[in-house]
Amino acid sequence: MGNQKHPSKTDGTPPHLTVTSDMIQEKTPHLLFRLHDKRFGLSISTIREIVGLAAIARLKNGDQPLRGNITVRGIDIPLTDITALLDLPAGPLEDKAAVMVLRDHGKDSKPIGIVIDEVLGVAHIASPYNPSADRSSLIKGELEHEGQRICVLSAQTLRDHTQI
Known about the structure:
- The protein is mainly beta.
- Helix content is 4%, strand content 41%.
- The protein has 1 helix and 11 strands.
- It is globular.
């Protein structure tokens, strides 16, 4: 062992290191938020903005998950409560409640407002995380971030479940 040499090229430089895509964990920013006592994350690229909970125009005979409409800068946005979709109990709106407005998705789509209990911040999450086995699931996967379990949501599935 004492006299072994490290492999090198003929010019004396170390051998070429090949970096493959599975060696790189790309981190993408996710908005972290809370619904009841659970924490969730959604890719920031799918979020248009976060707005305070303004006056809600409640719909008569509105079906779950549609809670009503809000107006943001003159645009009516359907307001969706996703607690039922996530098997969480319905409850009153909390003091820190906000509306997460998802970006338009395609030329015929409209923004969708999602009621959340509290914005927790932004985290750069490495993927892949523990993916959900059910590809149609609202939850894409889960991970641990700063000692807390985070369920990462699928924006596309969220839009599919909340189409008006």
